[in-house]
Amino acid sequence: MSNNNGQKLAGKIAVITGGSSGMALASAKRFVEEGAYVFITGRRQEQLDKAVKLIGRNVTGVQGDSANLDDLDRLFDTVRREKGKIDILFASAGIGEVSKIGEITEKHFDTAFGLNTRGTLFTVQKALPLITDGGSIIMTSSNAGLKGFPGWGVYAASKAALHVFARTWVNELKERRIRVNVLCPGQVDTPMMDQVLDAKAKIQFGSLIPRGKMGTPDEIATVALFLASDDSIYVNGVELVADGGMVVS
Question: Which residues are marked as active site?
Answer without folding.
Answer: 155
